[in-house]
Amino acid sequence: MASVDVVDVRKAYGSQEVIHGVSVDISDGEFVILVGPSGCGKSTLLRMIAGLEPITSGDIRIGERVVNDLPPKDRDIAMVFQSYALYPHKTVAENMGFALKMRHAPKAEIESRVRRAAEILDLVPYLGRYPRQLSGGQRQRVAMGRAIVRDPAVFLFDEPLSNLDAKLRVQMRAEIKELHQRLKTTTVYVTHDQVEAMTMADRIVVMHDGIVEQSGSPLELYDRPANVFVAGFIGSPAMNLLKGKIKLNGKASFVTDDGVDLPLSGAPKGSDGKPAIYGIRPEHFSLGAKDTIKAEVSVIEPTGSETQVFAKVGSQKIVGVFRERIAARPGEALPMVPDAKSVHLFDQESGLRLN
Ligand SMILES: Nc1ncnc2c1ncn2[C@@H]1O[C@H](COP(=O)(O)OP(=O)(O)OP(=O)(O)O)[C@@H](O)[C@H]1O
Ligand SMILES: [Mg+2]
Fold it and tell me: Hey, is 54 helix, strand or coil?
């Protein structure tokens, strides 16, 4: 096992720079997820760690070694791709053992390693089958088995679950997490799915346009996003982000662009009149006394366990999630009151957190 250090790495294709100086420290045994919208540079970063793509500047260390100029096969890593890329004419066992065979490992050793990986992944009954005789989830497990058999210092995953249907994805998510708890191999995992990131990672690195926006544990990012981008990216339904100004004379509050007064438990000194963004998560509303805050209901979606309310405060759209059942009709005013202690304030210009 090994740590992975990415130090101020840049990547340019021709004159176009797509990774603008990214640094990430990954500890030995850690499960780190790179998450971000399409095109932000996740796969590029992972491929640079793997050695499939040269870096333009910076350093990448795996364990104690700087690996900038090492070919992939010498980096002691195993990568699992979105397309499993199994050999169609080899059996499950042959697919899993192929890398070891190429390294001329003794036959008995290959067999015992394949066997052990198959046991871990519940693939023993399928060892003699061909990929076409397997379900999507089973093929995905074979692709992971191929990585496990090599017993690498680091696993690299690039959206390994995106070809699976929703139900299988949830199941595989739990299996990969359990696998990591057993093997404790350092893992770097790429996804654009923030739910996958939240549920699996020890630590999440949020990327955007070739930079790191924030890195931290899932709940750190959820509870204290460092900027508007992370606030809007992590969490589903997304955090409500309302534009307006901070008001400090008398009791602190926030006045939206439409003149609606929203509660604040405090604001930075000297921020009176400052244009800001008021962030409030959907679950941080409660139903207040009549006439406190009027949210005009657009749509109510009962899911059974909770009720999602889509509404408007002035001209700005909000969504609230309530544990209780709500019988309001479209067009009605609902007193949706934000919990002042759960408010996130961001600078309108820089997008940075203010409180
Ligand atoms: N070979 C290439 N030549 C030029 N530009 C490239 C090349 N490969 C990737 N890019 C650009 O680099 C940026 C990052 O691409 P990358 O594949 O890393 O994104 P990603 O975060 O993995 O996105 P996705 O979620 O869609 O897989 C994109 O703007 C892409 O167009
Ligand atoms: Mg990608």
Answer: coil
Task: Note the pLDDT tens digit of each residue in 14-68.
Answer: 999 999 999 999 999 999 999 999 999 999 999 999 999 999 999 999 999 999 9
Question: pLDDT by residue (tens digit) across 120-147?
Answer: 888 999 999 999 999 988 998 899 899 9
Ligand nearest to the CA of 44: 1
- Ligand 2 centroid–CA 160 distance in Å is 11
- Amino acid at site 97: G
**Does the Cβ of 100 fall within 6 Å of ligand 1?**
no
Domains (range + CATH), the chain: 4-233 (3.40.50.300), 240-347 (2.40.50.140)
Is ligand 1 within 6 A of the CB of residue 44? yes
Closest CA to 278 of 234, 244, 311: 244
229 CA to centre of ligand 1 in angstroms? 20
Pick from 342, 354, 355, 351: which is nearest to 229 by CA? 351
Q: Is 43 in the pocket of ligand 1 (CB under 6 A)?
A: yes
